[in-house]
Write a structure and sequence with these properties.
The complex is a heterodimer of chains A (349) and B (235). Chain A is mostly helical. Chain A is built from 17 helices and two strands. Classes of the chains: A mainly alpha (349), B mainly alpha (235).
Chain lengths: 349, 235
């Protein structure tokens, strides 16, 4: 029997982060199902790097190591970064990115709770600027290899060999075994004066987005809804982000459907769903006011669409997040709610 | 000028009030040309020469210039000296001149030059002013050398690339390849790399200062320091 008062113990940082990690699992499962287990290697590499970098930095800063390592926040950064870079990449790529994210983007700013930018997205930005070649060769989904999307499909052992030694089987180049992302392919073919309808007939595309990757997006959506249901994140950021992205893409699509792809495509390709539920909602680098969250997410959606459609990078979620991160202090300043019992700002005599 | 004065001015310029790490003046050229050792050192030395000459030129007339008109007068003198350096580099080191480009004439607007004139040459005798200008320039050169070196190693895996621009074709073999078959880390060469590396250098200097301070305090606090007592003997 329960007695009042019902005082609930708020979740610790560690428990919240653990739930977010759990929520990533459906997406990761879909990833493995469609693209093979190479992603698990990068997640493991990123996790080990993140934890050891975090421990080394904490030691340098003279902070207690064990309690901060146990808060799982470094692991979350590692997983998000590993999920945003190609699984078929040399091992040092993910190691450099994760170490940079933890050491510079997180610990140098003062550790958990003090970083103005999302560390995982800083890691991604550093990698895509420094190693554009490695960052744009993606694995093709199963069953579309062998003459379909890519010339040949590597066995898992061959993938492992490539990740750790950089050696490809005789006669194969990196271009032969990898593909561009669905977003990138769309952009390239639009430049070749093809219409959206023609392009979407390519085998790389599935029902809504990219073949395979759209299912990964469904997995992340499922995990995101779990986070909403357990109230770990509020609805403001995901709804405002996906809503704005849908609206902008919808307007462009209605005006010129041959050049601008349907809005649902934008939601289910790239990192839109992952960004809406897992990246933009980072409690440290996103606004604390609800109105601020709406503005923040809408701005990020606008920038994502602009970078994707008119920019040169394969996806815009990372840069959109970082650019809006800069604006967070200003957004929070201007969206302070009126304190209960005080008059609203406009009422001042 | 006493030798103590000489030492003080030199120490002040190169370490204690280092333009790049402590005064944080003239950030634009520091960040923009420090993508390699050769670029950085060349611009650093050009600045050092300008600063030494302008110190020597302005200190003798410091009492003749009316206070209200001092800034235009100082700037005019600095501009003349920079033009001389620019033409000299154009004539004798053309390829380097092309690489450094706009940053040579921009030495005029580099606030570190005018700042030292205002803070030092306008109040001190000629010899000291010339030395102060040179020491400050030398401090800047050191920062540019380290910054350029770190960015070059991380960015390209080489050291001293472009040295042939200064010493001619024969110097091409002086380039040191630190990491063979390096992929290149573009971020270190791009502006963010300059900011991050400079931040690290400033942090390192502050840390060294802090450590020296602690050591000094530790030595004063205990009369017979166990560690401190052994250290000098070991040297």
């Amino acid at each position: 029997m329960l007695f009042s008062p019902f005082i609930s113990k708020p979740d610790s940082v560690s428990a919240i982060m653990l739930k977010v990690l759990l929520a990533l699992l459906p997406g990761i499962a879909m990833y493995v199902w469609y693209f093979g287990p190479a992603i698990l290697v990068s997640i493991t590499l990123a996790s080990i790097t993140a934890l050891s970098t975090e421990a080394a930095m904490l030691k340098l800063r003279g902070r207690p190591i064990a309690p901060f390592l146990k808060d799982n926040s470094a692991l979350l950064t590692a997983w998000l970064l590993a999920l945003s870079i190609p699984p078929l990449a040399p091992w040092w790529l993910v190691v450099v990115g994760t170490a940079f994210a933890i050491a510079i983007a997180k610990q140098l700013y003062g550790g958990l709770g003090n970083n103005p930018f999302n560390p995982a997205m800083i890691g991604y930005a550093v990698l895509i600027i420094s190693f554009p070649v490695h960052m744009t060769h993606w694995l093709a989904p199963h069953g579309l290899g062998d003459g379909g999307l890519v010339l040949a499909e590597l066995s898992y052992a061959q993938q492992l060999q490539y990740i750790f030694s950089g050696a490809l089987p005789q006669g194969l180049t990196l271009d032969a075994i990898s593909m561009a992302t669905p977003l990138d392919t769309l952009k390239t073919h639009l430049h070749l004066e093809e219409s959206v309808q023609q392009i979407l007939h390519m085998t790389i595309y599935g029902q809504i987005g990219g073949h395979g990757s759209e299912m990964v997006a469904w997995g992340f959506l499922f995990g995101g809804l779990y986070l909403l249901a357990t109230r770990i994140i509020s609805w403001h950021i995901p709804v405002a982000y996906l809503g704005t992205l849908f609206a902008i893409a919808g307007i462009f699509h209605l005006v010129d459907p041959a050049h601008y792809v349907a809005p649902l495509f934008h939601l289910f390709t790239g990192a839109a769903i992952l960004g809406a539920f897992f990246i933009l909602t980072d409690p440290v680098s996103s606004p604390t006011t609800n109105k601020g969250r709406l503005i923040f997410a809408a701005g990020a959606a606008f920038l994502t669409y602009m970078i994707r459609t008119f920019g040169g990078f394969p996806d815009g979620v990372a840069f959109a997040t970082l650019l809006m991160n800069i604006a967070v202090p200003l957004i929070v300043l201007y969206t302070q709610p009126t304190v209960f019992g005080k008059k609203a700002q406009g009422d001042k005599p | 000028m006493t030798s103590q004065e000489f030492k003080d001015i030199l120490y002040n310029g190169v370490w204690k009030q280092n333009t790049g790490l402590v005064q944080l003046l003239g950030m634009c050229p520091i960040l923009a040309v420090s993508s390699s050792v050769v670029n950085g050192v060349s611009l650093g030395l050009a600045t050092a020469v300008v600063m030494a000459l302008s110190g020597a030129a302005i200190a003798p007339i410091r009492n003749l210039v009316p206070n209200e008109a001092r800034i235009p007068v100082f700037i005019l003198i600095i501009a003349v000296l920079v033009t001389v350096i620019q033409f000299a580099m154009n004539a004798y080191m053309y390829s380097l001149y092309v690489v450094l480009g706009i940053f040579i004439p921009l030495i005029v607007t580099n606030c570190i030059v005018l700042a030292r004139i205002e803070a030092f040459a306008a109040k001190n005798p000629t010899l000291q002013s010339a030395l102060d200008g040179f020491a400050m320039g030398l401090g800047l050169t050191c920062v540019l050398a380290v910054l350029g070196g770190i960015r070059e190693i991380f960015g390209h895996g080489t050291l001293l690339s472009g040295i042939d621009l200064v010493f001619g074709e024969a110097a091409k073999s002086w380039v040191i390849t630190v990491v063979p078959n390096y992929h290149g880390f573009l971020l270190a060469i791009l502006p963010p790399g300059a900011f991050i590396t400079l931040g690290m250098l400033i942090a390192t200097k502050n840390w060294l200062n802090l450590r020296a301070e602690r050591k000094l305090k530790g030595a004063n606090a205990t009369i017979t320091p166990v560690d401190g007592g052994c250290a000098p003997a070991a040297h």
